[in-house]
């Protein structure tokens, strides 16, 4: 398993357009959401916050999926390849 360099959780949306990440509430919010909020409607900002907050869980679910279900027989399926590219992107790697 790859080294996770991102801030450890919990990653949570406050139900609005902010995300609390570990103990770095303002830093993480300013870093990520300020660029997303410019010119966006509040519902879109809220949806972005929920997606960002779910990111670590989605990454972990994909990694668990690979360990449990991906075999030599199905590793060339387009869906598996797309999921592997998404995981590589999350780690800043070139897929």
What does this structure look like?
It is a single chain. This protein has 95 residues and is mainly alpha-helical. The chain has one domain. Strands 1-2 form a two-stranded antiparallel ribbon. A hairpin with a 5-residue loop joins strand 1 and strand 2. The model has no long low-confidence stretch (mean pLDDT 78).
Condensed summary:
The chain is mostly helical.
Q: What attributes characterize this protein structure?
A:
single chain; 95 residues; two-stranded antiparallel sheet; 2 strands; 3 helices; mainly alpha
Q: Could you describe the largest sheet, including whether it forms a barrel?
A: 2 strands, antiparallel
Q: Report the count of strand segments.
A: 2
Strands in their spatial order, largest beta sheet? 1-2
User: Helicity, in percent?
Assistant: 55-70%
Percentage of residues in DSSP E strands: 5-15%
Give the overall shape, derived from the CA principal axes.
elongated
- Give the averaged pLDDT, no decimals: 78
Instruction: Count up the domains.
Output: 1
Number of helices: 3
| N-to-C CA distance | 16 Å
Could you list the spans in which at least 5 consecutive residues all have pLDDT below 50? none
Radius of gyration: 15 Å
Write the H/E string, N to C: EEHHH
What is the oligomer described by this structure? Answer: single chain
**Structural class estimated from helices and strands:** mainly alpha
């Amino acid at each position: 398993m790859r080294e996770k360099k991102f801030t450890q959780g919990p990653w949570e949306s406050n139900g609005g357009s902010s995300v609390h990440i570990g103990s770095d509430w303002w830093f993480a919010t300013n870093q990520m959401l300020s660029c997303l909020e410019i010119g966006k409607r509040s519902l879109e900002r809220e949806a972005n916050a929920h997606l960002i907050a779910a990111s670590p869980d989605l990454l972990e679910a994909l990694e668990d999926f690979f360990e449990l279900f991906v075999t030599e027989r199905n590793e060339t399926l387009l869906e598996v390849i797309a999921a592997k590219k998404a995981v590589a992107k999350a780690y800043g790697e070139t897929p």
